[in-house]
Amino acid sequence: MSGLIAEHLKKSYPTSSEPLEILRDVSLSLEAGQNVAIVGPSGSGKSTLLAILGSLDLPTSGILQVDGVDPLSLNEKELAAYRADQVGFVFQEHHLLPQCTVLENVLIPFLATRTANAQDVETAKSLLERVGLAERLTHRPAELSGGERQRVALARALVRDPPLLLADEPTGSLDQSTADAIAELLLELQGERQKMLVVVTHSQSLAAKMQRRCQLDLGVLEEVA
Ligand SMILES: Nc1ncnc2c1ncn2[C@@H]1O[C@H](COP(=O)(O)OP(=O)(O)OP(=O)(O)O)[C@@H](O)[C@H]1O
What we know:
This protein is α/β, with parallel strands linked by helices. The chain has seven helices and nine strands; from the N terminus they run βββαβαβαααβαβαββ.
């Protein structure tokens, strides 16, 4: 089945007394072309949920399926390949490699499973053109503005054409007008490529741009207006 299906996810951490329950019962489903914002108080588990949806972390229990694949059933090697193929990540900080050029940074997701080929380079170049950085291929991240670095991060997240995009405060380090431009670009890219997009954010203006908003509080996720 296509789409993202998360059902009854729980996440708790052991402590010396009672386990610390972060996610009690979280369900979320999403289809290609849909986007959703996850909002909620600080410490409510938004980043934890995003990490579980992206298989960077494991739930304590629950069901997860992305385009028919159950990542919870995969071994470590399969999981690395699954993440590289199925999930594009955008973080608050761009996590670009400072010693690599813009183009090399965008090619990095290929290196998870193989070396990049000529077709990959073309894909990366055309994405960099799409995000407005065609003239900056050989620049290093330090030579770019914060907004430009986040454009590179968007191109990197999309370069393997994953069905699922996950973004954790993608505009959190940017001034308002740059944040608005990056949010618009993220949503344009998601819409034109019919990706599934989950964005964790404290920003009301970013959440307001999304098709759906879900509030995470006390370990439970609820759709809000
Ligand atoms: N490895 C861990 N062991 C124990 N507790 C953890 C661990 N990782 C996260 N937590 C706790 O889980 C809770 C949720 O953290 P998380 O970062 O997911 O929240 P958040 O909603 O994204 O917060 P913020 O909005 O401030 O970024 C926090 O109380 C945090 O301390």
